[in-house]
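FIELD: query
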Amino acid sequence: MNVDTIADFLADQRDETPDELQYLIIQFENFWERKLWHQLTDALIDFFANPLSEPQRLKFYKVFILKFADKINQLKLVDLGLKAATQCKDDNERLIFLRELSKKVDNENSQDAFVYATVAVARVELNLSDFSASRKSLDRAERTLDAFDSVETKVHAAFYQVNADWYHSQADFASYYRNALLYLACIDLSSLSPDERRTRAYDLGIAALVSDSIYNFGELLQHPILAALTGDVAWLQDLLRAFNRGDLVAYDMLSGHISSNPLLRDHVEEIRQKIYLSALTESVFRRPPHQRAMSFGAISADTKVRPDEIEHLVMKALSLGLVRGTIDEVDEVVNFTWVQPRVLDMAQIASMSRRLGEWGENVNKLGNWIEATGQDIWAP
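FIELD: result
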């Protein structure tokens, strides 16, 4: 297509463009004639960002943008391509379009754009329930990402978002949890709609509860995404905080919500085991280091676990790295030497403050005793 034909195309599109976007079409004509590719790209990005441009995006991409695609920033080219892809008639057509885009930017100097486009391919493959193809696309993108020293945050965000959703589709809750938190670390939460924040927070909370390898919710509890759990899902935030402090009473009060949620109901035994473990670690944490030899009876009283199941509970906690110590099976005593650090709520912080105060008093008493007892030794 020659320059005159492009000029005709832009003139035709100007007639179809809403009045508030007319000035951008005029800019396109100007920048195209002067070969100002950077300015033309930025103007196109502004045009595509406006919802009123939706009916024209695909046509602009195929007829206009592809004529100078190799002259512009390839990551921005993918941005424009992704916007254009939203106008494909269905996911099958969209997949063909995005695979062509991915091949186009698969060059040595544009691997960040290649990853960005490949992740978009993986998204559509996931939407089409082609889980194997989606996984292959994500693995290809991950290998390329791992070779980068640095890359734009939006590329990482796109990868973690689709990777998290893939793991969610496979009920791999631990991997979903990690990737979803990494995705949130790459974006500004204000870029998500209230419904998106609520859904993401809900899915993260459920994943934390049902995962068989997540026993510390500290990173999630500190994340502002939890503020989205309000109204009829506020109970989930309360339940997560109850787990964090090993609060069996609060757990029992909120357990009705567990039975009403199909996924939680299917994992009810694992979730109960988790709250017992949390109660155990909280009980150990509350005790001063020199008072962490606990009898089976004391553990049973704090965790509400039957005495004949205490040893199994402690061994589970030891194997998970939640605590360290030794079990004296003869005397039925556990000597705890370490407990996993955790995020503290205000009550736990107050408890630690009291213990620090007591420690300070004990140090002061020891100092006074040494001063009084050793007076004859160091007196002049």
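FIELD: remark
The mean pLDDT is 92.
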